Amino acid sequence: MSGKIEVQARKELKQMKPYTPGKPIWEVQKELGLERVVKLASNENPLGPSPKAVTAMQAALTDLHRYPDAQSVQLKQAIATHYELSAEQVIITNGGDELITLLSETFLDAEDEIIVPGPTFSEYEFGAQLMGAKVIVAPLTNDLQYDPEAIVAAVTERTKMVYLCSPNNPTGTILSKKELQYILDSLPKWVLVVLDAAYSHFVSADDYSDGIEFVRAGYPLVVLKTFSKIYGLAGIRVGFGAAPQAIIQNILQVKEPFNVNALAQAAAIAAIGDEEHVSRSRSLVAEERQRLYASFRELGLSYTESMSNFVLVEVGEQSEFIYEQLMAKGIIVRLAKAWGLNSHLRISIGTPEENELLIEALHHILKENT
Ligand SMILES: Cc1ncc(COP(=O)(O)O)c(C=O)c1O
């Protein structure tokens, strides 16, 4: 049969922009004929996956003819124990991304409003648009810090959810515990707060809270965490939400039965107990972050101090050119234009060797073009 397809997708989909992931290594290798490509574009763990997780996945391979545990009971318990929560306060998801979609499906009606910081991670907007809800942006300050008062001031009768991303992607800036407390105490009771703490392990500031203590205290708060970053398991897709039991019960109503595969469950149980890998990964980021700052200063580039495993650096009007030149040298970073930051690049922190290659390349590009 031939002819024009007349079936129409939902009208909400017409306004939705597709997510642009960091370019994969293989694509750049193929396009540019390069052998060595360094990816500093998706905030992954350059040390690789937790070795304990790899062993656990290998052991789980022979059981792959069985469906995974639909409720991820063991993993839920491991997380509950780790964070001093009850298992009923935890939901396991197919990466943090799935949790954002599930939250949108659970809580957003058409015309509801969500408040997001601006700029921030794009999936919050995606979830809202999917449900026909509106996105209200509470801008960060000029130096890309949180403005808690602007967030509270953006609330209307239609506000259903407030997203807080701390550390924020792409700026690396955080909300202090006091600011989080202020926001939680200032919002009307019908507003659900989602604290995206995907990068919480990389924070060294004393006044930071990953929100778990506020979940324990019973606030209407969902804390999102992921195994994709510090644990190095981005490829197997597993994350979780922590929230009061009543909120978890609501979200479970829309969850697919087998949303988290068996290898991911086994890997995450092992990874959460792999303290050595966590501590190596955290130290690497802390040390290399300082080294990148020093190199940026030498190059005369300003940057935003980051509490995460990436740094937003200001390279000027030629940001797109510099991004392409880096790519031509086999270094993939993220152009921050998508966030409205026209002079910036977001650079994930790699191994010392990868960071050295980045700095050398930046040095060459800037020297040749000034
Ligand atoms: C702020 C933030 N939240 C959530 C996620 C989702 O991570 P994942 O779906 O891999 O768990 C990411 C991924 O980059 C992120 O940057």
Number of domains: 2
CATH superfamily of the largest domain: Type I PLP-dependent aspartate aminotransferase-like (Major domain)
Task: Determine the N-to-C terminus distance.
Answer: 60 Å
CATH-defined fold name of the largest domain: Aspartate Aminotransferase, domain 2
Unreliable spans: none
Bound molecules: pyridoxal-5'-phosphate
Rg over C-alpha atoms, rounded to the nearest angstrom: 21 Å
Strand order of the largest sheet: 2-8-7-6-5-3-4
Mean residue pLDDT: 96
Number of helices: 13
CATH class call of the largest domain? Alpha Beta
Query: Which structural class should the secondary elements be placed in?
Result: alpha/beta
The biggest sheet amounts to: 7 strands, mixed
Give an account of the 3D structure.
There is one protein chain. The chain has 370 residues and is an alpha/beta fold. It folds into two domains: 22-48 and 276-368, Alpha-Beta Complex (Aspartate Aminotransferase, domain 1); 51-273, Aspartate Aminotransferase, domain 2. It has helices spanning 25-32, 51-60, 73-83, 95-107, 123-130, 148-153, 177-186, 212-216, 245-252, 262-272, 275-298, 319-328, 352-368, and strands at 38-39, 90-93, 113-118, 134-139, 159-165, 192-196, 221-226, 239-242, 302-304, 310-314, 331-332, 334-335, 344-348. It binds pyridoxal-5'-phosphate. Pyridoxal-5'-phosphate is lined by residues 43, 95-97, 121, 165, 169, 196, 198, 226, 228, 234, 239.
